[in-house]
Amino acid sequence: MNYGLxxxxxxxxxxxxxxxxxxxxxxxxxxxxxxxILDTTEKIHNKEHEVDLKGKILATLFFEPSxxxxxxxxxxxxxxxxxxxxxLPESSSLKKGESFxxxxxxxxxxxxxLAVRHPKEGSARLAASVSNKPVVNGGDGGNxxxxxxxxxxxxxxxxxxxxxxLNVTLLGDMKHARTMRSLVYGLAMFNANIxxxxxxGLEMDPRYLDEVNKKFGLxxxxxxxxxxxxxxxxxxxxxxxxxxxxxYEAQRVQEEFRVKKAxxxxxxxxxxxxxxxxxxxxxxxxxxxxxxxxxxxxxxYGIPLRMAVLEYLLR
Length: 315
Known about the structure:
single chain, alpha/beta, 5-stranded parallel β-sheet, 11 helices, 40% helix, globular, Rossmann fold
């Protein structure tokens, strides 16, 4: 099958018949669409807008572990009046050797929308190409995680009142974290000032930064030493110890890039600290009680945001 041709037909069908679209990458949505989704999220959060998708079914196909993404998709769907079809790989025909493509083709006939997470990059795009129902990417390897980016943007706007012109520091593994790749793209759309701080060897791919720069005129600084004094927003992700050949070097780097309460003495009083979660030891636990810690609120915003996304995809 020509999967690219299927995707073209799917797009034409949605235009002609006013059907759905997919959300595979943050590249799939323009600035106006993002602002519309964030505005709808705000209205849902403030109980000023109800999403009615009664009679629809969301299939959650998660081929790797998840807590927040999976549960918030399911909670969002139920709050929209949808039913849930929960696909469990360990008890499916995957154990008999069924392919990913055949699984998607089958489940497509049972649901009205699919939320897919998979460890391989490009898997969500492949799923969308063989499905005639809307597919939303819940994370594909180290590639993209668009709904997490929308949650992040909403959290920043909610905390700071705006995104444009803010100084946003991203701290951690820039090379492998899909959350960071998507967020850089989203922040660039809003003309934020971005600082990327990572250990040497774990910097973000410069080719990706060039791509974003050509599209939006990226205002970015790259550093290997943690510093939060100028940040309006500090976004943290973990240093992945499994990426290091030397466990002692991994431990040293993790400690260096761990955010401690003492490190924030020169930070702005209204600094917003975000994290996609789960956090392991990259943020000192005492910071959880500080007013600057916004990451649990950020996780809870996943419900109204994903309600807005489901309405956006199925409207």
